[in-house]
Amino acid sequence: MKEIRLNAFEMNCVGHQSPGLWAHPRDRSASYTDLAYWTGLATTLERGRFDGIFLADVLGVYDVYGGSPDAALRHAVQVPVNDPVLLIPAMAAVTEHLGFGVTCTLSYEPPYPLARRMSTLDHLTRGRIGWNIVTGYLDSAAAGMGLAVQPSHDQRYEVAEEYMEVVYKLWEGSWEDDAVPRDRARRVFADPAKIHRVRHDGKFYRVDAIHLCEPSPQRIPVLYQAGASSRGRAFAASHAECVFINGPSPQVVAPQVADIRRRAVANGRDPADILIFTLATVITGRTEAEAQAKHAEYRLYADPEAALVLFSGWTGVDFSKFRPDEELRYIETEAMRSALASFTSDDPDRVWTVRELAEHVAIGGRGPLFVGAPEQIADTLIEWVEATGIDGFNLAYAVTPESFEDFVDLVVPELTRRGVYKRDYRTGVYREKLFGPGRARLQPPHPAAKYRVE
Known about the structure:
The chain is of the alpha/beta class. It has one domain: TIM Barrel (Alpha-Beta Barrel), CATH 3.20.20.30. Helices cover 37% and strands 13% of the residues. The chain has 15 helices and eleven strands. Strands 1-2-3-4-7-8-9-11 form an eight-stranded parallel barrel, surrounded by seven helices. It has a two-stranded antiparallel ribbon with strand order 5-6. Strand 3 (99-105), helix 4 (111-124) and strand 4 form a beta-alpha-beta unit.
């Protein structure tokens, strides 16, 4: 049995994947504006030897449900939402090993400043930064950026391909490894002969510049990708080192995993060089009865309407227009296509009604909900790994920080006892902690390696 990898799935907002539970008396997600909340969470996760914290983000508001943002604002459905990047240096300062995967949408920012931001974070975290590459899915985000409508789904990925080429050139092709001698005697900080101008003239981007940052510990952040459509999986197989997928059952998740690994092989990559995480939410206690009691208590605060607001935003389908007992059907939109597919066409043997969907999404979003004693949770996590081929889980919370504290205190010791979870962190930067020593930088056949200046 391979080692199970774990990320905490968080967002700089209220509620995140369980929007109604912010009203629970023990939930502290409304303290998202308090830096102490985030530093406390980071130390808890490192105590539990989590590989990282995966920070979601979204530009725009969920205004598909009812054609208005009112329900999202009323229920705090991922709005208000603050910038996740600014949390990372503070969390890095109180930890030594925890990795940070941060979502930054490439569709609305040129590659030149994003490359600098990621290099800066890699320096400040001492090589523990990752970037979740997303292309966006909300028309409200496009409107906020001055566009009449967002580009089509496939065009966004066409843009992303060129975007990656540009940032690879900046990160790998501008500064040589020994470009910064810091020679006080000669009064030479950086050697101009070893620093190169990047020139790119493409369909979507033009760049003529030197990368603004000296080489950081990893050069390139660990590359996450969270698009599970067919086009998204193709992009992941080419570029991603870690892939985040979603699905309510192994029947939905397993084919996605197999397809990503198959595409990786077709691109000449070792499929073991891609770690695949799936979303899950865990409610546990010292006994099964205690866990079930927590679940029942949490259900009192679950908000089905807020869940439909969230799902409408993800899919671009207005679920306020559907009857509660109406069966779900796949509808293709320019939003997050995999979200609706995972509850319809990806598992045709399971028929969901709108009411069942709302109840499911209300605690934990699109992923499964696991409830039980630590031994039961460990059994279930292991069964999912064996049934789907995933490498680990992005764990969302029902009530925070309680969900994470319960997992660290109760489930981590059980996974460790069974030998399926690490006893200590590996040494090195984030990429080495995930893939092993000597892997600080991306190597061939990854497309980034061909831009490396010698």
